[in-house]
Amino acid sequence: MNNNYNKLSIAVMAALTTIVPVKVKAEQVLETITVTSSKRPQSLQETNIAVTAFSGDTLQELNLTNSTDISAQTPGLTIGTPVGEGNNPSISLRGVGLNDFNDNNEGPIAVYRDEVYQSAMPGLTFQLFDLERVEVLRGPQGTLYGRNATGGLVHFISKKPTKEFEGMLDVTLAEYNQIKTEGAISGSLTDTIMARLSVATNNHDGYVENRIGKDGNEADSYAYRLQVNFELTDSFEALVNIHGGKTDTVTPKYQHQATDDGSGNADVADFYGYRDDDGDPWAGEYDRDGILKIESEGASLKLSYSTDDYEFNSITAIEQVDKVHQEESDMGPFPAVIPQFASENDQFSQEFRLSGSTESMQWIVGAFYFENEVNGGLNLEMNFPGPVIDMFTGAPSGTFGPDMLEFFNYDIDYLQETESVGVFGQIEMKLNDQFNLTVGARYSTEERTMTYQNKTTDSPDAVVNSCLIPAGDVCGMGLGVDFPGTNYFFDFSDNNPAVGDLNEIDNDNISGRISLDYTPSEDVLVFLNVATGFKSGGFNGGFLDFTDGVTEADVPFEPEELLSYELGIKSTLADGDIRLNATLFYYDYKDYQALSISGLSQFINNSDATVSGTDIEFIWLPGENWDINLGASFINSEVDEVIVRGVGSVKNSEMVQAPNFSLNGLIRYQATEQLSMQVDFNHVGEQYFDITNSDVSKEEAYTVFNARVGYAISENLTVSAFIKNLTEEEYRVYNFDFTAMTGYAQNFYGKPRWAGVSVHYSFE
Q: What pairs with residue 675 in β-bridges?
């Protein structure tokens, strides 16, 4: 902990201790929550969907400050950042996810912000501030939410403008010179116009030591949200939401792991002769800083018209996310592997909904339109020592000298355009006092085109471009691979008849859901769900090495379809002091989209797959001063067969980021009316980061503990101290296994121990 942080925190604590404590009411924070999982307000315990939800007040009180904190307290949910804080998150729910960090592909766990689907994953950096609640819906949600929700969804719902004047300010000071702020102000501008402005910033130094340069994994970001609500009449209102954010940081740092033939770790140097063997997961030697810049902006307009009989909603939204990311891929003190990703993601969406109810029925119908354009690319420079180039090319020893040379330079550019249309409807019917039936269906059609170009650039210094010795010796590589030299490319456009229909995908689907509910008492709900899900096909973008036998036919992949069965129970016991919810599930996938990495190529392959398991949530309020929250997830996943280039057929493998067992817990004690104490933990069982289930990609079980002490100085002012990763557990949140090509693996570790203080002030 540095001196600046010490001085600042001491000053804050000294100032706070001079304030005379005022008794405030102690409240348990694990309250009953109203959710909108069925696109209408409904008690969490009354909805026939497996849902975990956190109110905004709970998030603040329990110090759940980022998406990783939420996933740690949600059974079956994993949210990681395999390529750094603020970059593409990898979301897995009940073992289902897609760890593709290319910006043109969306995962099967849909993410919504204020009822708007978010296609650009880097934009999720700016979600978690001034929230009304967060909802995590498990299982396929395609009937009401549509595209790419085969595995479930995460919904971030912002606090709305209020008529009464109110506001808040939250300041966190922590290790690594962290200064994190969150603030909001809300109130009436006129009798019929209300507004709310929310802002957030997060800045801290890098927590990965670079022994030869600037430390990595820093944060430098801000975000804002302006909402204005117009009450046009007693039954008609309009909500405008304008939001954006920016992050500009030093690129994240992977950790080096030298490997042997893939059977395990090896005490040897990697392909480049480098070995990092001090055992410190948060230190290394990196020859360049790299960059990570993300800019996000968007706006939405929600129109709502309601009568006694029905409600009409229209939601129009635009989103734009731009990203530039250059990373340190070789993890060593030499310029070996230099990739730079860039993308511009623009989307437009329009949803119409009409809903109503009678004494025995709830119904909803709607239509959805979505269009998206992703303009992205990758520039990849790889440098090898001269003797290695001699070996690769079959050239006489000493031809390329002793130093590092630019061996080749890839330039990949693509333009992907998507247009999707859907219509949907759902009816909830009351059969009698104890049984309810829900039936829903959705028709979707989606068209996607890709213009794709992969070529060696015009870089005159690249060996494969310049052909320094006769083509049969250098460009032939002595490996049976022909490098055409400059202008090596595949052009996926209408001007290239050789590719046929490979640049266009047209999918349509009818999916649905049927659910039967049984309420033997007012405190118990039993539900049976059968649902289908659909996720359209797409294109492999980014890494595709066409010099390694890859053809145009490897670029597109097929849609995935899912048949899901769920049996669940929700119960409230002991006069409301105990909440016990559990769900058994079984997923049967056709053409599951599984990611594999081989050499320089990254593919999404299709395979049949199954997932089964259970998730359990237990909340107990043993007394006025105690909150106990426990959750568990059991998962058994199996992917039938994936053809991995360079490996062959991989059968009966586990899904990526699908631990067989996970357990989370939180215990909070209100010691006095002012003083509260909290301990929480997240245990994650053994899991794999690669579909091959290699030993290198295997992460052993680990447990992360956090602790917090809060003191309410008044009804409006609270100060707290926290420690995250209390035991400084060393665990990987992701791994890329490049053993076969370079003799090393990229490891990305979770944050080390992190201590700080927070001050929260609310006013009205």
A: 711
pLDDT of 358 above 80: yes
Q: Is residue 574 within 8 Å of residue 591, measured between CB atoms? A: no
Q: Are 310 and 66 in contact (CB under 8 A)?
A: no
pLDDT band at 482 (very low <50, low <70, confident <90, very high): very low
Task: Answer whether residue 474 shows pLDDT above 60.
Answer: no
Alpha helices (H) in 558-715, listed in sequence order: none
Structural domains of the chain in order of their starting residue, each with its CATH number: 3-763 (2.40.170.20)
Query: Can you tell me whether residue 81 is helix, strand or coil?
Result: coil
Amino acid symbol at 619: I
Using the predicted structure, report yes or no on whether residue 495 has a pLDDT greater than 80: no
Sequence-distant (6+) residues with CB within 8 A of 374 are 103, 104, 120, 343, 344, 345, 346, 414, 415, 416, 417
- Helix, strand and coil content of the chain, in percent to the nearest 5, comes to 10, 55, 35
Cα 328 to Cα 314: distance, rounded to the nearest angstrom? 45
DSSP-based three-state secondary structure for 390: helix
Measured between alpha carbons, how far is 629 from 650 in angstroms, rounded to an integer?
Answer: 39
The residues, any chain, with a CB within 8 Å of residue 732's CB and separated by 6 or more, are 689, 699, 747, 748, 749, 750
> Within its chain, how far is the Cα of 687 from the centroid?
17
Rounded distance between C-alpha atoms, residue 50 and residue 62, angstroms: 22
What does the pLDDT look like over 20-46, one tens digit per residue?
A: 333 333 344 445 677 777 777 788 888
Is there a contact between 402 and 386 (Cβ–Cβ < 8 Å)? yes
Question: CA 658, 659, 663 angle in degrees (round to 5)?
Answer: 130
pLDDT category of residue 634 using cuts at 50, 70 and 90: very high
d(CA 615, CA 662): 9
Residues 6+ apart with CB under 8 A from 392: 384, 407, 477, 478, 479
Task: Give the predicted TM-score (pTM) of the model.
Answer: 0.89
Residues whose CB is less than 8 angstroms from the CB of residue 485 and which lie 6 or more positions away in sequence, other chains included: 456, 464, 465, 467, 471, 475
Amino acid at 363: W
357/446 Cα distance (integer angstroms): 31
362 bridge partner residues: 357, 428
- Report pLDDT for 465: 57
CB neighbours of residue 495 within 10 Å: 8
The encoded tokens of residue 403 equal 């130093």
Q: How far does CA 367 lie from the centroid of its chain?
A: 27
Tens digits of residue pLDDT in 660-708: 999 999 999 999 999 999 999 999 999 999 899 988 899 999 999 999 9
- How far apart, in whole angstroms, are the C-alpha atoms of residue 1 and residue 174? 9
Which residues share a beta bridge with 14? none
Q: Do 241 and 302 meet the contact criterion of CB atoms below 8 Å apart?
A: yes
- Tokens 């995935």 found at: 560
Task: Give 472: exposed, middle or buried? Use CB within 10 Å, 0-12, 13-18, 19+.
Answer: exposed
Backbone angles phi, psi at 576, to 5 degrees: 90, 0
Indicate if the pLDDT at residue 492 is higher than 60: no
Instruction: Give me the mean pLDDT over the 385-410 stretch.
Output: 79
Tokens, residue 498: 């050789």
